[in-house]
Amino acid sequence: MIRAADVSVGDELPPLTIRITRADLVRYAGASGDFNPIHWSERFATGVGLPGVIAHGMLTMGLAGRIVTEWAGDPGAVVEYGVRFGRPVPVPDDDEGALVEVTGKVTKVLEDGTFKVNVTAAFEGKSVLGGASARVRLAR
């Protein structure tokens, strides 16, 4: 577990690489109840102008948030987390899936002693989450 005294503005979190497969989409749909066909039907997804089946935005958001919880060492340390969905993550129908690369950086110490961490999630070099940030309360 990282301690507040060991953190400085500008610190970079260890990068995280996440692979999202069609099987992950099926599991997430079952857990969330989101069975929108853009997340499982290639024909439907391309028919509405998407590049193919896409990952659920909330799944991508949740997986990207792992960079902060793993760094903090305690999911309960994250007191706020938000993103804007910028670009879809197409998930091919193969064993490889889609590779999302996540980075994070401490950008501010707030008045209440929490830390602001900006999170970047990219697929094929393009950002998929906009304005992603977390507020983290670390042990003293």
TrEMBL record:
It comes from the Bacteria. Residues 16-118 form the MaoC-like domain. Pfam families: MaoC_dehydratas. GO terms for molecular function: fatty acid synthase activity. Gene3D superfamilies: Hotdog Thioesterase (3.10.129.10). GO terms for cellular component: fatty acid synthase complex. GO terms for biological process: fatty acid biosynthetic process. Belongs to the enoyl-CoA hydratase/isomerase family. PANTHER family: (3R)-HYDROXYACYL-ACP DEHYDRATASE SUBUNIT HADB (PTHR43841:SF3), 3-HYDROXYACYL-THIOESTER DEHYDRATASE HTDX-RELATED (PTHR43841). This is MaoC dehydratase-like protein.
